[in-house]
């Protein structure tokens, strides 16, 4: 008689919890699922908090509503699966600004993560080198080729488009720089069309045409009540046993599956399972892979991460522009790289007393020393720089919060996608009951992480098709 399969999900972020929900939905009835979370809190970089009596996100604030093909994103599908669709809300203000030469200028529309298909549309913020984007009789990228975003865009459009537009766009998402980040991983649609098109403008337009934006469909959404409700519902609906403060120190293969060493060195616990979803960042994943697959651990562990701090200020009746927020190019010499005007952007958070919540993101890849400042210094610097950028002194904050995310955002170097694919191929061949999931492998953003967790769960279900006794 077969016993139920036992699956361990290591990591209680959105990727791990999405894997747990998928396992509950699709694995054979009776499958035992346990989620191991090293910290005391589920959700990873999704964390809803409170400041001055107001709900606020201390991590990711929203999700894309559509997937690259124009359909419903994996995040929206999960929200529906969890019965939270009636809580989806959208920004009431969508226009953002760029800080250029110390002044606010509207972010040009019609770009692809800042890369324009029409150079005339960005002349208010940058002077493109239009003559450089000429047809040279061959596609921009060769088969299988990957380059940094900055290398391609600088070559075709010049430095200002990268420094003033593309770099702050990518920096707002990855806290990295266009000159370091893989085109294939961060902008896969553009990479695909660049293998066909002979000009960058043509490649951008082709990528946009391949995924047309549906009229009237909002780009972003979040949940009334905060994204913490998504985490709570996923943990509940998965039916998994949730173990918080449970550090997995070692992962060892057994004849029938895996042995997990849990807890402190002086008092370890050993758990036998049939399969594992490894939904943790690359470096802890590499440590766990070092025993069963040292050569793969070396590849996984090469991925670097950027650290950031999110500084949120509660301001009484500030004079804020009707903007969702702003982006700051690194060339401006400011500490802040982006800011969100929460209570302007999200209408459901506005208060009749005029109290506003403003959040700024601090920390670029390679500038981690800036984050060694005290919370008080970070908050004061953010207040001072925002006042200067907005051209009017902001009132003194009545409350504030600094959320530090150490090693939070993966920095995908060229070739990342191929390296991850090779690791997964090797795992399927040698350790088919072990699957990787999360931002360190498939990209950032809630929909990507949800899909990554679900795909890992599907692989485990397939691998366990004939297992169990």
UniProtKB/TrEMBL annotation:
Its EC number is 1.3.3.15. Its main location: cytoplasm. The keyword Transcription regulation does not apply. Residues 14-461 form the Amine oxidase domain. Keywords: Cytoplasm, FAD, Flavoprotein, Heme biosynthesis, Oxidoreductase. It is an enzyme of class 1 (oxidoreductase). Belongs to the protoporphyrinogen/coproporphyrinogen oxidase family. Coproporphyrinogen III oxidase subfamily. InterPro entries: Amino_oxidase, FAD/NAD-bd_sf, Protoporphyrinogen_oxidase, Zeta_carotene_desat/Oxidored. Its cofactor is FAD. This is Coproporphyrinogen III oxidase. It catalyses: coproporphyrinogen III + 3 O2 = coproporphyrin III + 3 H2O2. Involved in coproporphyrin-dependent heme b biosynthesis. Catalyzes the oxidation of coproporphyrinogen III to coproporphyrin III. It comes from Micromonospora musae. It comes from the Bacteria. It is found in: Cytoplasm. The keyword ATP-binding does not apply. GO terms for molecular function: oxygen-dependent protoporphyrinogen oxidase activity. Pathway: Porphyrin-containing compound metabolism; protoheme biosynthesis.
């Amino acid at each position: 008689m077969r016993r139920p399969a036992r699956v361990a999900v290591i990591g209680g972020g959105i990727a791990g919890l999405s894997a747990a929900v998928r396992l509950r939905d699709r694995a054979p009835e009776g499958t035992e699922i346990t989620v191991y979370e090293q910290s005391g809190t589920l959700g990873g970089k999704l964390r809803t908090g409170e400041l001055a009596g107001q709900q606020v996100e201390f991590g990711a604030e929203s999700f894309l509503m559509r997937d690259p093909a124009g359909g419903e994103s994996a995040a929206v599908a999960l929200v529906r699966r969890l019965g939270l669709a009636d809580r989806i809300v959208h920004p009431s203000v969508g226009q953002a600004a760029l800080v250029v030469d110390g002044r606010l200028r509207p972010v040009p529309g019609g770009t692809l993560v800042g890369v324009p298909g029409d150079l005339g549309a960005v002349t208010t913020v940058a002077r493109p080198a239009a003559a450089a984007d000429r047809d040279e009789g061959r596609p921009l990228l060769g088969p299988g080729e990957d380059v940094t975003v900055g290398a391609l865009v600088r070559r075709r459009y010049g430095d200002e488009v990268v420094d003033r537009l593309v770099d702050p766009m990518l920096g707002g998402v990855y806290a990295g720089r266009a000159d370091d980040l893989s085109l294939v991983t961060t902008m896969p649609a553009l990479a695909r069309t660049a293998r066909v098109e002979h000009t960058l403008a043509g490649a951008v337009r082709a990528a946009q045409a391949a995924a047309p934006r549906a009229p009237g469909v909002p780009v972003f959404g979040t949940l009334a009540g905060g994204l913490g409700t998504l985490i709570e519902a996923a943990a509940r609906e998965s039916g998994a046993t949730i173990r918080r403060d449970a550090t997995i120190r070692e992962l060892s293969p057994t004849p029938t599956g895996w042995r997990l060493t849990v807890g402190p060195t002086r008092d370890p616990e050993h758990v036998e399972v049939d399969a594992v979803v490894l939904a943790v960042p690359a470096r802890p994943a590499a440590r766990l892979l070092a025993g069963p697959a040292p050569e793969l651990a070396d590849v996984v562990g090469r991925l670097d991460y950027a650290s950031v701090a999110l500084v949120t200020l509660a301001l009484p009746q500030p004079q804020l522009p009707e903007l969702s927020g702003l982006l700051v190019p690194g060339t401006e010499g400011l500490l802040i790289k982006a800011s969100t005007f929460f209570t302007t952007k999200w209408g459901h958070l506005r208060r009749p007393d005029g109290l506003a919540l403003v959040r700024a993101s601090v920390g670029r890849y390679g500038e981690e020393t800036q984050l060694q400042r005290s919370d008080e210094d970070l908050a004061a610097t953010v207040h001072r720089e925002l006042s200067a950028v907005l051209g009017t002194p902001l009132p003194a904050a009545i409350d504030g919060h600094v959320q530090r995310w150490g090693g939070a955002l993966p920095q995908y170097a060229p070739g990342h996608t191929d390296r991850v694919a090779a690791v997964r191929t090797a795992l399927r061949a040698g350790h088919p009951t072990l699957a990787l999931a999360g931002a360190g492998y498939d990209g950032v953003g809630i929909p990507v992480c949800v899909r990554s967790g679900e795909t890992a769960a599907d692989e485990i279900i397939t691998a366990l098709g004939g297992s169990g006794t």
